[in-house]
Specification:
The protein has about 150 residues and is mostly helical. The protein contains 7 helices and 3 strands; from the N terminus they run ααααβααββα. It has a 3-stranded antiparallel beta sheet with strand order 1-3-2.
Length: about 150
């Protein structure tokens, strides 16, 4: 919008003063373009700052939730195992414990907002550690916590 206003002003100056030197007209147009590009850059910077603040707030909130979750969960073995997991694995285990100890990969992906590649890597790691089991159910993969993990 600012671009259109500045260009309109530049055109008005050009049309109203035919006797102005062409170099002055070019300078005015260049100045208008520089000013508008400055405003555009400032708007992009503000948008990037807003996005980074939101993502850091979300990450801090997730970390607090995980810390509270580890304290609430009673089984000693599970607490020890959860503390040894990385961030993404903790999120998945927390999700499964709060959703009847099983879910499907598509639901996990949508709920926690983890990219598919990271989710698959974390699920593979959890399966290798014996914490979860994976079952193919038609089009979806069912993810469940193992009995070994849930034992006291």
């Amino acid at each position: 919008m600012i671009i259109y206003i500045l260009l309109f002003l530049a055109l008005a100056i050009i049309l109203s003063a035919n006797h102005i030197d062409k170099t002055i007209i070019i300078l005015i147009i260049a100045l208008c373009l520089i000013i508008t590009s400055f405003f555009i850059i400032m708007e992009f910077r503000k948008a990037i700052d807003r996005i980074s603040k939101r993502s850091s707030k979300i990450e801090k909130m997730e970390l607090r939730q995980l810390a509270n979750f580890e304290k609430k969960y009673k089984e000693k073995r599970a607490q020890d195992i959860i503390q040894a997991l990385d961030f993404n694995e903790k999120i998945i285990v927390n999700y499964l414990l709060t959703h009847n100890k099983y879910s499907y990969t598509n639901l996990i992906e949508k709920s926690i907002g983890m990219p598919t590649r990271n989710l698959r890597a974390s699920l593979r790691s959890l399966r290798e550690k014996g914490i979860i089991s994976l079952e193919d159910k038609d089009e979806f993969v069912k993810v469940s916590l193992t009995k070994w993990f849930l034992e006291k």
